[in-house]
Write a structure and sequence with these properties.
Blueprint lengths: L1 H25 L6 H16 L2 H6 L15 E3 L3 E6 L1 H6 L7 E12 L2 E10 L5 E7 L4 H11 L6 E6 L4 E8 L2 E6 L13 E3 H20 L20 H32 L1
């Protein structure tokens, strides 16, 4: 009996360590500096593949003849989000309203921002640069939008190319407010004007439902544009918790088996 208690105690310790470890890993949030730095390091090699093209088009990116993208590097990134399936399908306007889609990194040449690099995960979970833009003013527009919110409340960057939304969302008492970084006639949003997410969500959901209905009847196609495919790449967080649960089950099952067979040996003696 004492042997069984000792083994159960060991099992409890192992499970506690696994759960604690899982909590620490899961707490590695998208806007955590360590996480951003990890993503940055993992995409640098893919960014270098764009250097020849950037050098060839450097005038379009605002560089002079004496400047070169051979000296380019990525600056500090920022996580960006898209409207989630929970919002589109269920109208949820809480923390489930947005889904992490990737990171935006400024392209720096001699300390000057000359463009924007988009980093996303592929189906295998690997991060890579998937798009390069000549937008060199986006950082300033984001900062201006953040200033509209009071009391330094937590904010999220919304960069949803499927719905043509570039805005900053801030957590309010009753949900989220949103501030567009540019004039957006599609959704009746003006630059740096604060609006309730409810207003935008109602319009987007209505549009999305109409799109689904047309798609179901095969009477509407949107080649190369429209609201696009709403499916987004999964983040590493999606895999952490399920893996931990599986690991717990395996360890627990193995430990029970050990206790059982040891007990049988003791009985046979």
């Amino acid at each position: 009996m004492n042997l069984i208690r000792k083994n159960l105690f060991k099992i409890a310790i192992v499970l506690s360590v696994i759960i604690l470890f899982s909590s620490f890993v899961y707490a590695d949030t998208a806007d955590d500096k360590t996480q951003i730095e990890k993503v940055k390091l993992s995409v640098e090699s893919s960014f270098m593949k764009f250097i020849p093209s950037l050098e060839a088009d450097k005038k379009d990116f605002g560089l002079s003849g004496s400047e070169s993208y051979s000296n380019a590097n990525l600056g500090d990134g920022i996580p960006y989000y898209v409207l989630s399936k929970d919002l589109l399908n269920n109208g949820k306007l809480d923390d489930d309203a947005f889904t992490l889609d990737g990171y935006l990194f400024p392209i720096k040449v001699n300390g000057k921002t000359t463009g924007m690099a988009t980093a996303q995960q592929d189906s295998s979970g690997q991060w890579a640069i998937t798009d390069i833009s000549s937008d060199s003013t986006y950082e300033g527009r984001i900062l201006d939008a953040k200033k509209v919110f009071k009391d330094n409340i937590p904010t999220k960057l919304i960069y949803d190319r499927g719905f043509f939304i570039f805005a900053v969302a801030g957590k309010a008492n009753s949900g989220y407010d949103i501030v567009s970084t540019e004039d957006n006639g599609s959704w009746d949003m003006k630059k740096n004007e604060i609006k309730s997410l409810d207003d935008l969500a109602n319009k987007v959901v209505k549009h999305y439902n109409g799109f689904k209905q047309r798609k179901m009847t095969d009477s509407y196609n949107t080649p190369g544009g429209g609201i696009g495919d709403i499916n987004t790449p999964k983040t590493s967080h999606n895999y952490i918790l399920p893996f931990s649960i599986i690991l717990i089950i395996v360890v627990f099952g193995s430990s029970i088996s050990i206790v059982y067979f040891r007990r049988r040996k003791l009985v046979s003696r």
